[in-house]
Amino acid sequence: xxxxxxxxxxxxxxxxxxxxxxxxxxxxxxxxxxxxxxxxxxxxxxxxxxxxxxxxxxxxxxxxxxxxxxxxxxxxxxxxxxxxxxxxxxxxxxxxxxxxxxxxxxxxxxxxxxxxxxxxxxxxxxxxxxxxxxxxxxxxxxxxxxxxxxxxxxxxxxxxxxxxxxxxxxxxxxxxxxxxxxxxxxxxxxxxxxxxxxxxxxxxxxxxxxxxxxxxxxxxxxxxxxxxxxxxxxxxxxxxxxxxxxxxxxxxxxxxxxxxxxxxxxxxxxxxxxxxxxxxxxxxxxxxxxxxxxxxxxxxxxxxxxxxxxxxxx
Length: 314
Prior knowledge:
There is one protein chain. By secondary structure, the protein is α/β, with parallel strands linked by helices. It contains seven helices and 19 strands. The longest helix has 21 residues.
């Protein structure tokens, strides 16, 4: 039997859980489907120093547990599962969870976030999980006392490099340009860390490794210098890819208006999408800031706008 709800939140993380907090306080009895990564990208982050309310900092997973618990306490119906199909052509909006359960929602808040981009190398696929990772905080401990490489030049890459520098003997930071796009504070932290070596103007071309039956191990990263054309193999045991994120919007293609990168377009100073009654919050609609606090703020805005929309329909 189909289930009817006033407000359905698709995805968790700072945006989804905060939307749940505000929607609950507005009496919308929201249902939240957590998706593939309950808690979102913050759950793969170490110490967070810039989220308000934690003066001495706190781990990303702990912060997300706190926000989730707050949403639960206020009445958000948080459920494990995946929204696998949506129909936004008319209200109530039809959303299918885990290919079986149909929810008819008067309003929907999309907070599916974004996931890591990969290099696209065939060797990357070969050694993914065997020395190739997109999460230093998840897998860094496996490389304690060894040499690794981080690929990227933004805040995420520099944060991963400084984190790994505490565990590893040496960290190569491979960047395709001759300057970083990361914040000045993060750059200073990298330059002040003696066991980080920056490899400028270089593009990874091959992940080198050994395969013995089902056992695989990374032994190097081959990079090509864009200026000299010289190819060099860095002797490392692990590669951490930190080159940006891909918004999780495949589900909404043909349903919502997306930009060239796949992010959901929202109206200026609003979380409203091109479909009346459907709102987008967090990294799924934010290609610029991608911060936990801005995601939480947009989750608040989405819930408030959903409430106002539903009142206008009465």
